[in-house]
Protein 1
Amino acid sequence: MNELSKTRTEGAREEIRKDWVPKDRWIGEDIARLERERLWPRIWHIACREEEIPHVGDYVTYEIFEESIIIVRSAPETISAYYNVCQHRGRQLVNPGKGFSKGGFLCRFHGWKFDLDGSNSFVFHEEQWADCPAFTKESLALKKPKIDTFGGWVWVNMDPDAVPLREWLEPVADWLDPFEFQDLRRAWHETIIAPVNWKVVMEAFHEGYHSGATHNSWVDYYTMLSPTHAYGKHCGFTTQFLEMPRMKREDGKWTPAVSGADMLYYQSKELHDELLAQVSDSGMRALERLREEFPPGSDESTLFPRFIELSKEEMEAEGARWPEKLDMEAMLKPGISIHIFPNTIVLPTPDAVLWYRMRPHPTDAESCIFDIWSLNRYAPGKEPLVEQHVSEGFAAAKGRNPFLEQDFGNMEAVQKGMRSRGWEGARTNPLEEVTTNHFHRVLDQFLAMDPL
Ligand code: FES
Ligand SMILES: [Fe+2]
């Protein structure tokens, strides 16, 4: 038994202090193997969006390590999940990817067929098994992981004893409900095959402490504090400005924000123009009106309620629907970002959401598959047709998203630095990196098979 698994099986979790996560949580074969065996088969995974499979027979596959799972619309109101494997000799039923198969699935090896409900509908020369009592139709049905939906996403879990998805997501599911993510549609979908461990990517996004040094091109985030919080298995961060930040103005000069409206406008403009997400065109129009209504020196006590009113007005003028329960309290509840354990990060705003998912590479612990979805509210019929864009490595993604490029710029250097004998572990900030520390505490519990 190695040191890592010994400490875990002995339950000595206290070794993780609130300001310390040891190096072996990232580097080495042990951690990758334990995650593969004890984490990934036991979590709820985001597999796809519901709207990716609008018609009966539409399917996509979800890949994680050796598993391929078919997500198929099996009836107008039913989405089903099956392990992508024929019950005869184990051929994958469909090639990984997207497809349409209205009549069910035909295995190309010996011609067995399975209906969209997973039942076996045809065995070539079935009579030849007549003397085999275990050869029943029930036993031939496709095997199923657990499946559920939340926020317009299809989630799957390979653990037959898994808690229901809703229970898994609490308490954050209640906070995310008012945003009605199921009504949002993709504005874009970027996938990066990233040459770093999945946790290196994930941890670059679940705190705001890095913003001052990393995101220094449009807003001065050194004036920002980003308290982090643990929410059950999950975690997240909020932000507050300790003083008016300097902003890069249209003329290229850096000057401090002159009011709350001015600050909100330029911060949002950065998200709209550089992150290309979280703030839609209608949101920017609302912010322009807000800035006019609240000139420097005016009473800003009603700034945020008015911002929500204007956002709603501008969105409805476009023909999109504002979620009824999304008032100011509901909007502020999740903070800037929620990290859903273990590999999903959600950044909701009034009119959009940015959504991250990191999956480990099946054979290389220092590589991962990083998906980024930007989702907006659209008027019916105005949703764009979205093609997933895949980049092999961060260099290939250059030029596609100026803001995220700043985050990408750290990741390979982090992965390299973590391997050094000159680094023994992360000194996590007890206020602004609780997320990193808490995530590893929860992960440790999973890897040691302790109850949560
Ligand atoms: S493996 Fe599928 S029919 Fe033989
Ligand atoms: Fe960042």
Protein 2
Amino acid sequence: MFITFEGIEGCGKTTQVQRLEKLLSDHDIQVLFTLEPGGTGIGTNIRRILLDTENKKIVPLTELLLYEADRAQHIEEMIKPALNEGKWVVCDRFFDATVAYQGSARGQDMKLIRFLNEKVTQGIRPDLTFLLDCPVHTGLKRALMRNLSVHDEGQDRFEKEKEQFHHKVREGYLALARQNKKRFKVIDATRSVDEMALDISDHMMPFIRSHLKNAK
Ligand SMILES: Nc1ncnc2c1ncn2[C@@H]1O[C@H](COP(=O)(O)OP(=O)(O)OP(=O)(O)O)[C@@H](O)[C@H]1O
Ligand SMILES: [Mg+2]
């Protein structure tokens, strides 16, 4: 089973991925937890270029191609082998992020994005996508608080984007959820970490039960 987490900056993806990690390990399910960009060694280098605030000169097409290059490597090196071994894969952002950020927000050619996504993923698609949805100011405030508390380098290139950019990302994600109703589960991310985790766990339990039954 392939599960992805999506949503604007600071909505709580990484926090909920960690909660899911606990839930799945409690049920002894073998899972690869990974992220984009940066799920491989090469991807870590690509991530650095993408998030570095010094890289003001990156043109939109370079940005798009770097994300797709990261994904091509990630699929071949990590995701495909894990799925082939029968493991579950949980990924913190995946190809929907490129549609929302580079497509809906940056206004790049959607046809090109969909073509590249299809090509680099070799047709591998998530079975389930959790979209953690909250207003832009809620997400950005959380991200800002986190950056202050962990004393990292501060905001990355995307967190520095104007509020309007993040509104477009949110709308892009919600449009994707409407177009892919079966795959998407929209989670109200204005709630507490525990409430969100419970909602996600409720949604996961039938899949976990069916997996454990088949494994017997
Ligand atoms: N439901 C919540 N309510 C309040 N604070 C939260 C909630 N979920 C996460 N946080 C806090 O908000 C901050 C951002 O959360 P997290 O890093 O999980 O978001 P993210 O979606 O992974 O962000 P990014 O897009 O930057 O990777 C963290 O400090 C986290 O502890
Ligand atoms: Mg995160």
